[in-house]
Amino acid sequence: MTLSTLHTGSRRWALAEGYIPSWSNGPEPELESHETCCMLNTNDEDAAVTLTLYFEDREPVGPYQVTVPARRSLHLRFNDLKEPEAVPRGVAFATVIDSDRPIVVQHTRLDSRQAANSIMTTIAHPLSAPGWARPRSGRCRCRGVHTPDTPRA
Fold it and tell me: What DSSP element (H or E) covers 146?
């Protein structure tokens, strides 16, 4: 059994927190303050991914569209997203990530506003597929090799 047959990940993810500082302290692009969406596609086919950004005081923006090649990872800086519009600096936002194939998503931030840089990372929150739930017993018979997007044993 290969990783791709395990359907690693989920088709929908949420990053509830996002913020790109409006300035940086260090050489670009290495030490430019940024948010990154790290995506892993273990499938045998490319994953078509869309990102929609949500804000505190305005309507959502998106979809931003990217492809994560089969059996590859993609480290996408939000700073580089330009279409349908550039991600604003100095503004809080959240992101919903949708994929046509199961992927894994991790969120990373580099804040270089101070001379002592700060980096933060966390796994994104996978959003369950409609109708997916654990059995009433609380234990699954498949020994943990599934995700919300994987058929039950």
Answer: none
How far CA 6 is from CA of 60, 134, 144, 151, in Å, comes to 33, 18, 10, 10
The residue among 43, 11, 3, 42 whose CA lies nearest residue 145 is 3
Location of structure tokens 């990372």: 121
Q: Supply 74's token pair.
A: 């993609």
pTM exceeds 0.85 for this model: no
* C-alpha 112 chain-centroid distance: 22
> Does residue 38 contact residue 107 with C-beta atoms inside 8 Å?
yes
- The 10s digit of each residue's pLDDT in 53-95 is 999 999 999 999 999 999 999 999 888 889 999 989 889 999 9
C-alpha 93/C-alpha 15 separation (Å) is: 9
